[in-house]
Backbone:
């Protein structure tokens, strides 16, 4: 499991390392802000180029609420990674559960 603060700088929240396959089994993004809704964009980037997959784009998460951008399982192969971008800093936090195969 990994926890990540999501900021406006489009941080990488999960990467499949060398020789790894990650199976994401759950992902929840919570809006921790007490008075402001905040949007989320989540994208999967493929190792070596390829086509990026936008999981969600500017989905508004209400105050004190949560959103699941990954429905079902998502497989990341070596070098693949997920980035998440927020409308504002200090508002969104992601929790990602995954299985790692080496």
Residues:
């Amino acid at each position: 499991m990994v926890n990540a603060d999501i900021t406006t700088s489009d941080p990488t929240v999960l990467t499949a390392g060398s020789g790894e396959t990650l199976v994401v089994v759950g992902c929840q993004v919570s809006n921790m802000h007490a008075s402001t809704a905040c949007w989320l964009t989540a994208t999967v980037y493929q190792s070596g180029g390829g086509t990026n997959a936008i999981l969600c784009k500017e989905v508004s998460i209400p105050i004190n609420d949560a959103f699941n951008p990954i429905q079902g399982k998502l497989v990341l192969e070596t070098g693949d990674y997920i980035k998440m971008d927020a409308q504002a800093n200090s508002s969104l936090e992601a929790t990602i559960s995954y299985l790692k195969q080496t």
Remarks:
- The CA atoms of residues 60 and 72 lie 21 Å apart.
- The radius of gyration is 13 Å.
- Strands lie at 2-6, 12-15, 21-31, 38-45, 53-61, 66-67, 74-76, 81-86, 92-101.
